[in-house]
Amino acid sequence: MNRSALVRFQLVTFTVLSILSLTYALISYVSIERITGLRTYTVTADFADAGGLYENALVTYRGIDVGLVTSIDLAQDAHVRVTMQIEDAYQVPTASTAHIRSMSAVGEQFVDFVPTTDEGPYLVDGDTVPTDQTETPVPAGEVIESANQLLQSIPKDSLDKAVDETFNTFDGTGPQIAQLIDSSAELVRLAQADLEPTRTLINDAEPLLTTGNEVSEDITSFTTDLSAFTEQLVLSDGQIRAVLDQGPSAAATTTTTLTDLQPTFPLLMANLQTVGQVFRMNIPELRQILVIYPALSAVTNHSVTGFQLDDDQRGPQAPLDIKLGNTLNPPPCTEGYQATERRDPSDTAPAQVPGASYCDVAPDDPKVSRGLRNTPCATDPAVRAPDVANCPQGLPSTWEGMLRRPGASPTPETPAALPNPAPAAVPYNDTDQSFLSPQGASYIIGTAPDPSAPTKEADRWQSLVIK
């Protein structure tokens, strides 16, 4: 009877332990909590790509397994929606970023929550992590393809040469490399001592790296141009060596020249100060010249285009086309030039000057009022004529004094009195009762002129320019 009670007790104990073990196995290995949803909450995340993720993949938070992926579906907006069950013992901040990462090179992906803060709010059952808070890795196939293209782009001969040169570089440098490693360890120790400044440097380097990505094309272009520049340096090696060899003598010559100029150069600069003052007072005019001169040069160059002659040794002839306003006042004169033949401007041979060629019109005609026909006569300036024969008393050979015999002097006639010159009219300012004299001096009616005031004739050319 006692043995039966003992056996019964053993059987009951074994049954209880079996039930407890089975319950533990269901909870730990069969994930009964995930199946029943006990002590978990469901969160979804939208990814641009599945990235090789699969169901039952791990979900981690700060390196700790906090849940599993229950399903992967395609959302209506072409995004991949990943549903995850997370144990309620772990609180994940809402601002966290969900990354799909690879656990190994084999391709075991998992979801890793990276928090940006350790404060709330936290994810709760039914929350969704938007696409802008998720990141997917680069597909392994794309990485392998890029690596394969990179390896194929490396020339084999150059690679062999690089390996040989690397071997020659490090051959026999074991002690130096050991010293370098020891120094690197010391450098790492110092870096760990200054860890916070290093982190700040890394964080602040992000804008710089972003700028580098934006100007990557410019950097590539600069590298290409630098390669061409170095090739040109190789081609110009002889000339560069000649410059370096002759550089000291050229520098010595330059030093000697500067020494020779030392007595006169300061004097030249002092004299140029006066010229600079003149230029400073005429800056608007100089600026106008600099503005007009390029256009004038361009027009001049364009005017001779197409006029070059094959047998012309003096250069091209430019057509001259000048347009002036109000050219008919006074009108041009063509009378008196009928016997003159027009000459080619390219003909530079000696030629006889034509005579009696002038504007042959009446003296009161407005044409060429200052021409030859209005030349004052020597015998009477009031009379104007084109030649001496038309002046009063005619040619000098017909004058009475010229016809007397030698030794007889003519009786001089009393010259007629010249009329007094008419007073000159000057403008008058009725506001301040001032006026300017013909000599340029300013006067005010009712006041005497200042005898100490400088006159126009006393001005020197320097004062005229500086004024």
Automatic annotation (TrEMBL):
Residues 430-440 have a biased composition (Polar residues). Residues 307-379, 404-467 are annotated as: Disordered. It comes from the Bacteria. One of its GO terms (cellular component) is extracellular region. InterPro entries: Mce, Mce/MlaD, MlaD_Phospholipid_Transporter. Residues 39-115 form the Mce/MlaD domain. This is Possible Mce family protein.
